[in-house]
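Bug #77: duplicate submission created two jobs. Keeping one. Sequence:
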Amino acid sequence: WDRALRAHVSPGFRDGLPTNIVDYQGMAADFNFHSFIASLESVRLASLSQEEWKSVLMNAYNAFAIKVILGNPCQYSPQGACLGPIASIGDIGGSQGAVWNMPVGRIGGETYTLQHIEDLLRNPPAPFQSDPRLHACITCASVSCPSLRPEAYLPGQLDQQMGEQMQLLLRNPQKGLSLEMSSRTLTLSKVFQMYQADFVRSAGSVVAFVTPFVASPADRAF
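Kept job's structure:
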């Protein structure tokens, strides 16, 4: 998976926004991608440490998101005719939001949906702890979402990688956070609205959560 990401994910622009671009054709033809998907079948989640467990599930989520896009290249009309390529992952499944509850892959002998994996990461089994930085690490495969990291999440580097992902999101004024000093307006990614409860539970408020990731002392004092 790490080799596939390094080979087929690179910085670029899409719809005028800076993001990491996935070479889907290259990924589809890559043995390493398919080998990783197949390897998840033998994973035993109950035997893993917290860092291993989170790494496996975040890597699986991102790989399955790519897999479902590769398996559903057409946007269909109600009559079943292909209208052309999908514009985003949300076009898959026939109705808005359906893709998140579609079976997308197997981990340890069980079938998972993207929603199921996300729910597990947001509310992990005891004694594991939730970490809202995950929302910068799993990708919804759309240009406005946090960028796909061009390397695999690894247990020994997980804390650093998750921190970097959140920092990259929030230091991107077109996708993560922007400050308008004259009007004293803070604009954040919709991620912080959709998962507000996770950030409040972690830091007391969304602003308190994002502040340590803001680079400029003047901006942090804003």
